[in-house]
Amino acid sequence: GAAHRDDESCRTTGRAWERPSHALLQLIGLIDRLCLKKRTIEPAATTDCSRLEKSAIVQFPLNRDRYTIHREIRSAPQSQSKEYLHARIAGIMPLRKIGILIPTPREARGFIAAMKMQRCDAETYVCRLPGTTVILQVCGIGLNNARRQANRIAGQGIDLLLLAGFCGGLDAGLAVGDLVADNQSSDPRFSGRVAAIAASRNIGFHLGGIHTSPVVLWRAEDKTRLGRESGAIAVDMESGAVRDVCRMRDVPYGSFRTVSDTARQDLPSAMRHLTAEGKANLRMWIALACNPRDWFRARRLLAAARIAERHLTAALVDWIHE
Q1: Half-sphere exposure (CA, 13 Å, Cβ side) for 197?
Q2: How many whole angstroms separate alpha carbon 61 and alpha carbon 65?
Q3: Is 41's pLDDT higher than 60?
Q4: pTM above the 0.85 mark?
């Protein structure tokens, strides 16, 4: 077959290799397909992508399952770049790294399970797809936590930082489970992609400002007043810090959230005592027990959170695989 590539061929030199000719690519693919019947193809070893520059290209071993790739190329729509598809035949894949920040484990658990992500430490999860490495960090609630974790993940050479999670509605037109895309995202095409995903899933979509609040807004009148004064349509507690970090480090930024509580909905007042990880503590349980009204508010919020989590997971998975 083609020249044997040893382990050294998996390393990058900071520049792209010279592309082989089109005829040679077809010949390599034909030889591999003929040999596929006589030998078992072992999966390629996972490449360590932590030290790659943004412009680098990873050279994978030749023992990839080329038959699967050929079938995919034959059935691919003509809108896909032929150069990219031919590169897949040769085992050359452009690598990109996407960083995702989600404030709490409750918001992230559905996406982690759907993507079968591997846990690296208490806050970090990773999954590797063809040509893409996804790094997820559970950043915690609030500006300080979001700023610290955004700096940490931005230092790993990511090509895009996505902030996702739940938000509170400030506009009366937002319903529970609706997708809200931040209008301050770096790429103007970002909101269009999110809107298409929402339409395909029959989920409500809104584009507008997401205001960052330092405290939990648990009263409906506070949310209505903030929406009127700020002009934003939704509120969270992390977006401002993440936007600032991305601007300072020159990292493309995008954000979308799902609505977990509407503008007219009161939250349990005991939520003021949530920990930075979004977990309940003794102080919160005591406050909840002392206020019977919070019992009904908490039940309503939990039902809304299940819808928001389901829609967030679906949107994130579709966005990654798009």
Answers
A1: 26
A2: 10
A3: no
A4: no
Residue 114 class from Cβ within 10 Å (0-12 exposed, 13-18 middle, 19+ buried)?
middle
Under a CB-based contact definition with an 8 Å cutoff, are residues 62 and 27 in contact?
A: no
pLDDT category at 79 given cuts 50, 70, 90 is very low
Strand (E) or helix (H) holding 311: helix 292-321
* pLDDT greater than 70 at residue 24: no
Q: Could you give the dihedral angle defined by the CA atoms of residues 72, 59, 317 and 276, in that order, rounded to the nearest 10 degrees?
A: 180
Interval 304-321: pLDDT, tens:
999 999 999 999 999 998
* Digit-coded pLDDT (tens) for 195-227: 999 999 999 999 999 999 998 898 999 999 999
SS3 content of the chain, % helix, strand, coil (to 5): 40, 20, 40
Which pair of structure tokens corresponds to residue 67? Answer: 């038959």
Decide if 158 contacts 101 (C-beta within 8 A): no
Rounded Cα distance between 27 and 5, Å, is 17
pLDDT at 68 over 80: no
- How far apart are the C-alpha atoms of 132 and 49, rounded to whole Å? 10
Residue type at position 57: I
Distances (CA, A) of 158 to 221, 246, 253: 40, 11, 11
According to DSSP, the β-strands at 160-169 and 96-102 are parallel
Residue from 141, 28, 140, 173 nearest 92 by CA: 28
Instruction: Of 58, 59, 76, 74, give the one whose Cα is nearest residue 26.
Output: 74
Residues sharing a CB contact under 8 Å with residue 117, sequence separation 6 or more, in sequence order:
111, 125, 126, 127, 134, 136
